[in-house]
Amino acid sequence: MFDDNQIFAAPLAGITDRPFRRIVREFSPNAPLLTEMISCHSLVGAHKNCLRNFDNYADEGNVGAQIFGADVNLMADAARILQDAGAKWIDINMGCPVPKVATRAGAGAHLMRDHVLAGKIMCAVIRAVDIPVSIKTRLGWDDEHRDWRDLIQIAADSGVRFAALHGRTRAQLYLGNAVHPDVSDMPIPIIANGDIKTASDLEELDGLGYVGAMIGRGLLGRPWVLAEIMGGAAPQNIGEIVLRHLEYAIEYYGEKNAIPMFRKHAAWYSAGMPNSSEFRIKVNRIDDAGALKVAIREFWGMI
């Protein structure tokens, strides 16, 4: 149904950082990957405590950078910075439902409530860069305001190249089942997002007009899932992948910061395996890279 360059890795806060993208890329050389969402304020201000503000994407292949914010000028400036850093396209977050983004910051999903501001941001970002611009949004703010079609039309009129549509409202957060409406009559290409984890999930999109699919939570503990959906086999020795991912994280963040950040990945990789609960408890008590590597090797039978 789709080619490998039509199956996207979604932006996941705290997850799809550079180390994780390196692992995904090993399995999916052609897949379009998105960064974690990047604050326009943090990026333009070059906040040093946020490493992703200084990422260079030139060696990452087809990687798009997602930005969020409500300041028109800062969003444009952020887009320029990311273009100069080697991003292949810019994605504007118009769907993040968490309160600190969607309500307190007036960004993310809040832009579904303020189409005028959304239009200004899209136009400013498009004028600021020479690379394609996309948006990622939801069905609407709540059941009474499922006005995604209006926002997609504004995006098309602004010059946005394509949109990813998450099949839930902001009010739903990530609860309930995602619903993928027919998008055959939309003026720009639409990527389906929400509850897509297997090849069979793609079959449900057939005939609805989507030109691709974006995988989010299906990536957790399964960075090979994009390749698997396209018919590839799951890796035989997951432990080797976990160790390599850990090394990438230490290289990027330094050991002190990488170890606590990596615990969640260790839990996801081990989910569903025998004795995984005991493994997670053990990992959560480890602060040393050497000890963590030993625990990983033991759990996956590499010792």
Write the layout of secondary structure elements.
Layout: E1 7-9, H1 18-27, E2 33-34, E3 38-39, H2 40-44, E4 63-68, H3 72-84, E5 89-94, H4 99-102, H5 115-128, E6 133-138, H6 148-158, E7 162-166, E8 190-193, H7 199-203, E9 212-215, H8 225-229, H9 238-253, H10 255-270, H11 276-283, H12 289-299
Parallel strand pairs: 1-9, 2-4, 3-4, 4-5, 5-6, 6-7, 7-8, 8-9
Helix pairs in contact: 1-9, 3-5, 5-6, 9-10, 9-12, 10-11
Question: Quick summary of this structure?
Answer:
The chain is of the alpha/beta class and 303 residues long. It has helices spanning 18-27, 40-44, 72-84, 99-102, 115-128, 148-158, 199-203, 225-229, 238-253, 255-270, 276-283, 289-299; strands at residues 7-9, 33-34, 38-39, 63-68, 89-94, 133-138, 162-166, 190-193, 212-215. Helices cover 39% and strands 13% of the residues.
